[in-house]
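Weekly puzzle thread! Below is a chain. First person to post its structure in token form gets bragging rights.
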Amino acid sequence: MTEINAFIGVGSNLDNPVQHVIQAQQDLNNILKSQVVQSSSLYRSAPMGPQDQNDYINAVVKISTALTPLELLTALQQIENQHGRVRQGERWGPRTLDLDLLLYGNKSIDLPQLKVPHYGMKERNFVLLPLFEIAKNQELPDGTRLIEYVNTIDQSGIEKLS
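Winning reply:
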């Protein structure tokens, strides 16, 4: 299989989230048949769901991979588990690490366990801003340019850290 570029959203708000995000960026480079091409700055954002949790630290990482989308998803979930991720079914709850496959080349994927582009990325400043930082000319599979979403997204409640 040929290499394809994929974008991974990285987020954490538990147990030293900055360290989890930095370590996850390194862990992504250790995925079989994959390598990190570029990482965004770190961003601090307010939680999406229940507000009685810590702010999140977010980033986006571009990787080049020869893995299929489902193989990559499995690898991402293994990294989450290594970071102590506990899945309790609480949507938007606190977590040590969240790795989301945002884009996989220019493919649209609609499987029970994987939706690409990631279903919420167009409304989330903590995804769009770091993604735009490293992929200014990115086009989504539907032909929409990323900048069109960045120009309309609410940019309050998010802070670029580094």
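Puzzle host: Confirmed. Bonus trivia for everyone else. The first helix runs from residue 17 to 28.
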